[in-house]
Amino acid sequence: MLILAIETSCDETAVAVVKDGRQVLSNVVLSQVEVHAVFGGVVPEIASRRHVEAIAGLTVEALRKAGIDKSELDAVAVTVAPGLIGALLAGLSFAKAYAFGLGIPLIPVHHHMGHIAANYIAFPELAPPFCCLIVSGGHTIFADVPSYDKAEVLGQSRDDAAGEAFDKIARSLGLPYPGGKELDKLACQADPHAPSLSFPRPKFDDAPLDVSFSGLKTAVINFLHNQNQKGKTVDLPLLSRSLHEAIIDMLVPRALEAAKSRGRKALAVAGGVAANSHLRAAFAKRAEEEGMSLYLPPLWLCGDNAAMIGCAGFYAFQNGVVADLSQNAQAVAPLS
Q: What SS3 class is residue 110?
């Protein structure tokens, strides 16, 4: 089955051709990082307009790289939620027209199911059930994945996402956008013998798998302001390392606990923050200690891409999920 997949939930315009769910014939991504960097973050209206301008050309390129004609396509899969509503509508409107014009099915895909499916592409041996941490700029979710087309939220952030905390703190430090990558580099430069700075790691008695990053973000920013008022120089590598330690302490143990709570022997990580080198190293160490099978997708499958949407779309279609032309986009939609 050949699926044309489209992803436009934020600031990457992505189109892919995926065969039978796991074989990626092409995957093209047009990033808007340089466009939004001057603003220090994504401007939704600009992102939407850029998707409209780029998507047709990227589709032609994706088909060319896959070596197929559009007449050979069996379906079109597209992200419909969650995300920036204007950006989602840009991709959905194009996908509707393309599917209608070719007379083939339209498959609506939840963005988070796409991130989970990125691991299916990277690891042919991976199959449900397992647990997955979805960690990105917009979401932090601990999910159980009992089957290819279902996922259940076991815990999540009650406010900011981990990636959002990284980016906003980086902006306060004057680092280039996207800031998470810059903080990752900074942390590598920290003196390994210097004692870490103390930052909060909140817990919730009523929901032990929930997390919160708003207080951490505020604590770091307040620390920076206090040091500045006292005329003191901040050791940025040490601050970044300490920030990473706090975030890792909130993510890694909970992800492992989520897997144990469901009796799962496999744990996957997905989303843009899954590319963070310190988080990957921490997961690798703890998973080995716990005897847990760990799946970390390659970096190209961590960020938003259309290949993962094609994979998720394939399994959704196998379970009868199709949409008509009344299909709408949703800025917010529960994973389950």
A: strand
Instruction: Give residue 34's pLDDT.
Output: 84
CA–centroid distance for 47 within its chain: 17
Round to whole Å and give the CA distance between 80 and 96.
11
In a domain, 327, yes or no: no
Q: Which domain holds residue 8?
A: 2-116+304-318
Banded model confidence at residue 37, pLDDT cuts 50, 70, 90 = confident
Residue 151 and residue 64: Cα distance in Å, rounded? 34
Q: What is the mean pLDDT of residues 7-20?
A: 97
- 133 shares a domain with 97: no
151 and 245 in a single domain? The answer is yes
The one-letter amino acid at 57: G
Q: Which residues contact 37 (CB under 8 A, 6 or more apart)?
A: 176, 177
Q: What is the pLDDT of residues 273-324, one digit of tens each?
A: 999 999 999 999 999 999 999 999 999 999 999 999 999 999 999 999 999 9
User: Residue 110: which of 137, 86, 75, 134 has the closest Cα?
Assistant: 134
DSSP-derived secondary structure letter, 197: P
